[in-house]
Design brief:
Layout lengths: L1 E5 L6 E5 L4 E3 L6 E3 L4 E6 L2 H15 L3 H5 L4 H11 L3 H7 L4 H9 L11 H11 L5 H9 L5 H14 L2 E4 L2 E4 L1
Antiparallel strand pairs: 1-2, 1-5, 3-4, 6-7
């Protein structure tokens, strides 16, 4: 059993499921006995209760005519669920090859095998290698398309900012 009820204190409308002895307005907190609440509709159908409440709210805002042209919530939910187009469908309908699009997303536009920014690659080297030297970090980053000059500058900046520490030629992330 569902009931669309109203609050005499703040004019809020809400739906109550079942029949409790008292009800409390979710907006203002006013508590009343269920029997004393103004019930606009009582129904066994939750969708019908939602439709009635929505219609009443639309009428309050002067949008009753526009609301009357809409389908019920249950029909709208079905339309939305049926009308969703997934990524693959969209790409195929656009005339694109889905496999090619996915492959392009995995490639670096500059043609290198690098994944991530140059600074991320330097940090990843610090995470992957155990207390590496500058030369080891340069080699790691170089395999991923990052120049030695950039690595040296990045290490210097990261050390100055306190992100990396250097001791006896060995680096580590803090």
């Amino acid at each position: 059993m569902y009931a669309v009820v109203g609050c005499s204190e703040c004019s809020n409308l809400w739906i109550i499921e079942g029949r409790s002895e008292t009800t409390q307005c979710p907006r203002c907190g006013a508590r009343k006995a269920y029997e004393k609440r103004k019930k606009f509709v009582e129904t066994d159908d939750a969708a019908h209760a939602r439709d009635v409440r929505a219609s009443m709210l639309a009428n309050r805002q002067g949008e009753g005519e526009a609301f009357a042209k809409l389908d019920s919530f249950a029909e709208l939910e079905t339309d939305v669920a049926d009308g969703v187009v997934d990524e693959t469908e969209y790409l195929e309908a656009s005339g694109l090859d889905v496999d090619e699009v996915e492959a392009a997303g995995e490639r670096d536009p500059r043609g290198s095998t690098r994944s991530g920014s140059k600074q991320e690659i330097v940090k990843r080297a610090l995470e992957a290698l155990d207390e590496p030297t500058e030369d080891e970090i340069v080699a790691y980053a170089g395999e991923r398309g990052v120049s030695a000059e950039y690595v040296k500058e990045a290490l210097e900046k990261l050390t100055r900012r306190g992100v990396v520490s250097e001791s006896r030629g060995r680096y580590r992330l803090l």
